[in-house]
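Submission sheet (multi-component)
Chains listed below:
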Amino acid sequence: MGFIESLLASPFWSSVIKVVAVFALLLVNTLILIWFERRVVAFMQNRIGPNRAGPFGILQTLADGLKLFFKEHITPRKVELGMYIAAPIAAMIPAFLIFLVIPIGRPFVIGETLVTLQAADLNVALLFILAMSSVAVYSIVLAGWASGSKYPLLGGVRATAQMISYEAAMGLALVPVVLFASVQIGGGPLGVGTMSLSRIVELQQGSFRGMIPGWFVFWLLPSFILFFIAAVAETNRAPFDLVEAESEIVGGYHTEYSGIRFALFFLAEYINMFNVSAIAVTVFFGGWLGPDFGLPAWIAWVMPIFWFLAKTYALLFVFVWLRASLPRFRYDQLMTLGWKRLIPFSVAWLVLFALVQAWQTFGAPWS
Amino acid sequence: MSFFDPVKGFWVTLRQMFKPKVTTQYPEEKRSKPQRFHGRHVLNRYPDGMEKCIGCELCAGVCPARCIYVRGEDNPPDDPVSPGERYGFIYEINMLRCIFCGLCVEACPTEAITMTQLFEMSVSDRQDAIYTRDELLMNPDGTVPHPQPESPLIDLGELRIADGWMRATAPSGRASYEGTPGWTPTAGIGLRPAERGQKKPTVDSPPSTAAEASRHSDLAGDSGLGTGASAEPEGEAN
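Outcome: structure written.
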């Protein structure tokens, strides 16, 4: 064990291992997620979905990926080549970066080092996540404009507007969480909040009377709902998928992309879906917290990871359920929802929550 | 408009997950095809073994896709192939051009060409898709050769379910022919089940003698449209 201990003790090598692990985890997850979505949507539509490639069709995504890999790169003549090639890469980078700050499991100790199952334990993790999702908008803008044709331009412009509007709602929905987390940290000087995701998960430990877990969602349900709706819109998923609706604008921003470039956009969308589910689970549903069922130590370390994945996939099921059930929003309905409903609601909820917390913490203003 | 109306739709979608699926898992399950399904063509024979095709080229003439090529030859007098003056010596159908409209079946005066229910005809070479007389003509025992062998995808039994063009004299038409087979079934198959509104056919074995076959075609010749050319298996001068 000496070699592994020293490997994990050095910050460089442990980071490398974690980054590679996150990369592998996200890619494998995307494979499973795409299969999961196709099967669940098919079941909801009274049909079977892919079940031929591999047992239960699990290798279908791999087959599709390989097919896209071998397809010809059709580059139209009017594209701005630099941005056209950079856009899919720019879509993938924030998707991977966001997941680096999410804790997957309980930290454990090997030798003398504490290994956190989180590639980077930033103490401004929430802010970092919001920043990265803003960067992700750039890829859509670039793809839409650099393609040099009508449908991608329209799709790209609409996608940009949509993503920017719902990011505001997403950020505002997360502010009460930081507020609540600061209140939960009792004993410290007032105003010490935390945006660190690992700390937020720790704060959700415990339970009320042994039955209801101490997750933030029971205090902050409106925040969760607002965040969830904004997240669905942010990732361009149905019912907010006007930008890539095949029946409306052919393919939207990825019309002119083929082969592996299209595969990268596709992958980025699903990785983002997984990311926002993971964030929602971490912040509202206790992340990797969950009962151990008294398993022996050598297997009990898997349980937090299992709980994290189970909760994330439960939320992803809701994503897929939304896609299978709801028709698409029209663009003006979408913008109305974002600016006239979600943002005022989140601001109102923030003010209300802040007032209530301040009342509880400081007492009445006139006392 | 209750509060839960927007949410009720989700329950519907969720419920569907537990209902039976409508997909048929081809090729393990296959859907049943309609009776008059337009599948692969077959050149039929009479129960006594003579070919029905008389080389008249009506099918080639009516084909809108011009995919049939027929050349007739006079019947050798001592060993006639078909009951008539001529028989289809060269008979080729290009399955890639065929649009499966069934006009050739309608046009054939002797019901020589019919369509079966097999549609799995994939080939990997264009030349293989031109079905020649050897591949189209049924064997004297009623089986039909097919370029591809029997496999989970290809059920050669479907080739023996001949469709036939039901003329006005057929059991589905006139009431006096209810229960009576009005057309000669291909060898080895037997009778069709009764259509809606008809009595069950009383004869359920194929006519095994030429005499029975001529009796059937006598009834069919009554209407005047008739299968006159194939009435007498002994051949007659028209």
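Remark: The mean pLDDT of chain B is 73.
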